[in-house]
């Protein structure tokens, strides 16, 4: 650890600042959902643009300004297409964006062509394509409550894992990927996630409790996987955070890692159970 870095212990971050920023973001999302879900789509589109900007800088070293700007235009376009035309719009916009990346990158010459196009398309998958499923969820009946439920289910994994890990954590779960994650934290995430899932299914969706338990269990696993995936990407790139825009959290993608994975899982699971 360099001299200009602060050791925040097991939290791994400035917890008061991270909490304040997290609550502010949650309040903004809730307001956008319950005032008008179109505001939520705009918010997700903006977040996807910022996330792709971070990803393209970290992943595709030497990417031209032309390509960087193109990706930042395509990202919100993919998300908005989901709001306007549903699943078909989301997939069509993504495929068209991938073809544009392949074509426009030709203008920058042969050097690192495969490196740039594959990583640029990966950035479009990781942020706007997956985030688009949250917008699809918001356009359904009771969409605002479904999106809020998926966010709470994802946050419960983080909160339960942090609390149990900070208090009881002794056995690292994946020391080479994310040293601060422990099996005790995994159990804490599971317990809180099951509670949140059951409560949501009984009191919000008026459905059998066991369905909420299944959804909570699955989304706890996928949230953990999403967190580990981004940790692996950052370790491979040799960076601590994807960016520095959000105090206490890092970059936008550092906050979206589990959410984008769970956006798809929520769309899939809620569609099956609800």
Q: What can you see in these coordinates?
A:
The protein is mainly alpha-helical and 274 residues long. It has one domain. Helices cover 76% and strands 3% of the residues. A two-stranded antiparallel sheet has the order 1-2. Strand 1 and strand 2 form a beta hairpin. The longest helix has 40 residues. The N and C termini lie far apart (48 Å). 44% of the residues are buried. The N terminus is likely disordered. Pfam families: CTP_transf_1 (PF01148).
In short:
It holds the Pfam family CTP_transf_1. This protein has 274 residues and is mostly helical.
Distance separating the two termini: 48 Å
Strand content: under 5%
What coarse outline follows from CA principal-axis ratios? Answer: globular
The low-confidence runs, each spanning 5 or more residues with pLDDT under 50, are 1-5
Q: Calculate Rg over CA atoms.
A: 19 Å
The assigned structural class equals mainly alpha
Oligomer: single chain
Number of helices: 8
Total count of domains: 1
- Largest sheet: spatial strand order: 1-2
Average pLDDT level: 87
Residue share in helix: over 70%
Reading the helices and strands in chain order gives HHHHHEEHHH
Using DSSP, what is the number of strands? 2
How many strands, what sense, and barrel or not for the largest sheet?
A: 2 strands, antiparallel
Topology:
Elements: H1 15-35, H2 37-59, H3 65-104, H4 113-138, H5 143-168, E1 172-174, E2 178-182, H6 183-204, H7 209-237, H8 252-273
Antiparallel strand pairs: 1-2
Helix pairs in contact: 1-2, 2-3, 2-4, 3-4, 4-5, 4-8, 5-6, 5-7, 5-8, 6-7, 7-8
